[in-house]
Design brief:
The complex is a heterodimer of chains A (164) and B (223).
Chain A: H1 3-9, H2 15-46, E1 53-54, E2 57-58, H3 59-64, E3 68-70, H4 80-90, E4 95-105, E5 115-123, H5 126-129, E6 145-151, E7 157-163
Antiparallel strand pairs in A: 1-2, 3-4, 4-5, 5-6, 6-7
Chain B: H1 2-10, E1 32-41, E2 47-55, E3 67-75, E4 80-89, E5 94-102, E6 108-113, E7 120-128, E8 133-138, E9 141-147, E10 154-163, E11 176-185, E12 188-191, E13 195-198, E14 204-210, E15 213-218
Antiparallel strand pairs in B: 1-10, 1-13, 2-7, 2-11, 3-4, 3-10, 4-5, 5-6, 7-8, 8-9, 11-12, 11-15, 14-15
Classes of the chains: A alpha+beta (164), B mainly beta (223).
Chain lengths: 164, 223
């Protein structure tokens, strides 16, 4: 039994006084717990800032292409290795060069949910890198850079972005 | 404003034309490059968008090259463009929906979407000159919005092969239809009424059926 309880149990403390002290202790404990929780949330909140860069492009570059990237808010259920395998299987002939866990959203998209993704960096196959479309009579340079987004919870491929 | 106007496009819905899918090797000598078949409209003023119902089609694609069909708007003055459509690459084993545009740094950005293609889908690309927002949609589902500063003055709906040995989408008996085609200018959506573009009349067919429909196909293929 602690010193505090011994004091509370002494007969010279009337019931109201003991009740008051008990409530005070409860409030203090609650405040401490809330404070601890804030400290625990703090680092995660700080981690939600924009990531400096991905695949050689700044966060601003990504944002200008409609993709907002920030530090992940959840852990991944699938591994980076599985994400790479999925990306390579989806884009045959390409080579995976890395995988980064990110929080990704596309504010202007109705088909891409905001979530934590593995951003798998690929060197696309020559065929895939070939410029597609464009106005009639106009060609463009090969798109040699590619990032594939794999949902880190479900393992599903969602979309990919390429650029020259 | 333009985006709001385009909601009417979604009411058109998919074409009643069924998907055609019968790959055929046209037997041509392989050669890398660009060959287009479709139609173009330059109304002589600013263009705010183009959309069309484009058939899905499984064509013969030579080697590991790519074949694509898309709706596009372009600024013919500096070559900036934005497009949405589908492409097929045999080595990947997929026909993917894609969007592509040139940003203000003259960088080409392509997105490839996990979007299930139907027998035919409405591919819509729009540009709002006030907000500078380009919007890409398929069947009314908004894939993406990006801010790019350019001034489109032409709409195009085209099939394209990147190797001459590949089949242009469609066959003699089953052309790929670019139907319900519209273009936005002068404050509203207009019938496309474009000019046919055929980069090899000996290899590809192209018939403008009416002001909203153009059919394209490969002359060497029946289906």
């Amino acid at each position: 039994m602690g010193l505090g309880m011994q004091l509370l149990n002494r007969a010279r403390f009337p019931f109201r006084a003991r009740l008051f002290i008990g409530c005070l202790c409860a409030c203090l404990a609650t405040a401490i717990l809330l404070g601890v929780q804030d400290w625990a949330v703090g680092p995660r909140a700080a981690g939600q800032g924009l990531i400096p860069s991905l695949a050689g492009r700044s966060a601003a570059d990504w944002a200008s292409s409609g993709i907002v990237l920030s530090s992940p808010t959840t852990t991944a259920r699938i591994s980076a290795a599985v994400a790479k395998t999925t990306a390579i299987a989806r884009f045959t002939g390409s080579t995976a060069t890395g995988a980064t866990l990110v929080q990704m959203s596309m504010p202007g998209s109705q088909v891409v949910p905001a979530a934590t993704y593995w951003a798998v960096t690929l060197t696309p196959s020559a065929a895939l890198a070939a410029p597609v479309g464009g106005p009639a009579g106009q060609g463009s340079e090969p798109l040699n850079h590619m990032v594939v987004f794999i949902n880190a919870q479900t393992g599903e491929y969602v979309m990919a972005q390429m650029w020259n | 404003m333009v985006v709001l106007a385009a909601t009417g496009a979604f009411l058109w819905g998919p074409s009643s034309l069924s998907a055609v899918s019968a790959a055929c090797n046209p037997g041509r000598t392989p050669s890398s490059g660009h060959w287009w078949d479709g139609w173009i409209r330059g109304p002589g003023t600013a263009v705010g968008g183009t959309y069309a119902t484009i058939d899905n089609y499984s064509s013969y694609v030579y080697g590991s090259s790519i074949t694509a069909v898309y709706s596009l708007i372009t600024d013919t003055g500096n070559g900036h463009y934005a497009q949405v459509g589908w492409y097929q690459q045999p080595s990947a084993g997929y026909r993917d929906v894609f969007t592509e545009y040139v940003n203000t740094s003259n960088q080409t950005i392509r997105n490839i979407w996990d979007y299930p293609a139907g027998s035919s889908d409405v591919y819509n690309v729009e540009y709002d000159p006030i907000s500078k927002i380009t919007t890409f949609t398929v069947d009314g589902n908004q894939l993406q919005q990006v801010v790019v500063s350019y001034l489109p003055n032409q709409g195009e709906v085209l099939g394209e092969v990147l190797n001459f040995a590949s089949q242009m989408v469609g066959g003699n008996d089953d052309p790929v239809s670019l139907s319900g085609t519209r273009i936005y200018y002068s404050g509203g959506w207009q019938v496309f009424a474009g000019d046919a573009v055929n980069y090899d009349v000996h290899a590809y067919g192209n018939t403008v059926q009416n002001s909203g429909t153009d059919d394209i196909w490969d002359l060497a293929c029946s289906y």
